[in-house]
Amino acid sequence: MNCLPDRPNLERLRREARALQRGARTGDPASLGRMRAVLSDPTDAAITLAKAQAVVARNYGFPSWPKLKAEADRRVAAPTSATDAEVLAERWFALADAGALPALSRALAVGKRRIEAARAVMRRQPDRYRRFRHALVRGLGARQDRTRFECAHALDTFGDISTRYALVPLMEDSVPRVRWMAMHALSCHACGEKPDALEADIRARIVEAAERDPSPHVRRHAAGALAAAGDASAVPALRAMLARERDPKVLRGIGWALRELTRPDNAAPAGL
Hints:
- By secondary structure, this protein is mainly α.
- The chain folds into 2 domains: 10-77, no CATH class; 128-266, Leucine-rich Repeat Variant.
- It is 65% helix and 0% strand.
């Protein structure tokens, strides 16, 4: 039986369930073994995500996925001690100073509350915090696309006005997930400090990606980036995209973005 971490990452648990479902459907022996330990007949094609989630929950000692999710939410919501935040901040500073970017990206994989608590500690040391951000910026030029992706992801939270234009070249990266993460890091107000409005050149590039990027994942995330930035001026372009787009997931992403941008509290200017 696995032990649930003190600060569980619910998204990782969801990914574990999806991976288990895929593995069982393709006949992976280890995945089927986990399924058979909980379910009576996991070999048919009807291995649903709900069944895989139930198996993951049982593996962690919970009778059901809702019980596991409730406990994960409770632990994440629990107050974070100052000591934990200080330990995290010191570890991240040390890894950044050492230039150990792959290790730093792994160490940053903690819950949002812990990140925010540690960031508050880091800001008390402006010089070290500046070096930390500069290390993330250097990582944007790494040869490994995973490092570029993770450093862009970190700058979504830790970046400021001084790091924004370092992210711009990654919107043209050869790897789709790096492109969309750069757009997200430049636009999402929920994650970190962002300008009230997107810069015109950045906005134009995100709109272009939503319209023409060859990757449907990038097109979908670009539409989401416009919504995350609260860019109501993008509503006409998004509506035009609905008429041209054929990918179902991208269409759903555009629809979500339009709903977000046309809510009464975030309505587009009259005439759009």
